[in-house]
Write a structure and sequence with these properties.
alpha/beta; 9 helices; single chain; Rossmann fold; 56% helix; 11% strand
Amino acid sequence: MKKFVAVAGNIGVGKSTLVEMLCVRLGWEPFFEPVTENPYLEDFYKDMRAWSFHSQVFFLTHRLRSHYKLGQHPGSVVQDRSVYEDAEIFAYNLFLQGYINQRDYQTYRDLYETTSRLLPPPDLVVYLRASVPTLQKRISNRGRNYERTITAEYLHGLNNLYEQWIDNFTLCPVLSVPADDLDYVSHSGHLRLIVEKVQDKLTGKEEVVFEPEEVARAAADD
């Protein structure tokens, strides 16, 4: 039976890398977030107040379209960032900070709520949880020019919203991955462990956690 998995998490946490690696291991098809395609993104990071609404509507419409296509896809897929994160994390955060005004935000929410309820949820959300220092290090390592102005405060605010969202998310099962402790790029054992946990959740196991002891053993198994 085909599966639809969405990988969620803050900027720089390693979503795209995990999506690619999961698909290689499982033989599934990856679908990546359109970072380089967004024509507003560089302008957004230069002037958030002027370009937040435009950038978020672009992301939302693309993600809604992608989500619909993934639901129709004949094979199993892994999506890089879900449509829910666009609305519940990024657009909401920009509204709270005053970068999107009340009128524009209400228009955005109406669009999101009307369209998203028509879409089938994923079979699983894999949530990559990481501290701000880890996010900053990974953002620096990948060297995207438009991300240089992202502050620790901004990342911290997003992390708080992610925790609130994931605590209240009930549309499908969630697997929380401690990304500070798991280096699935350097340690094949860590990737193997994540794949095992994903399969556990997809087969209906309710309590799936990453114990510190098994994380340490997985790194030693490389």
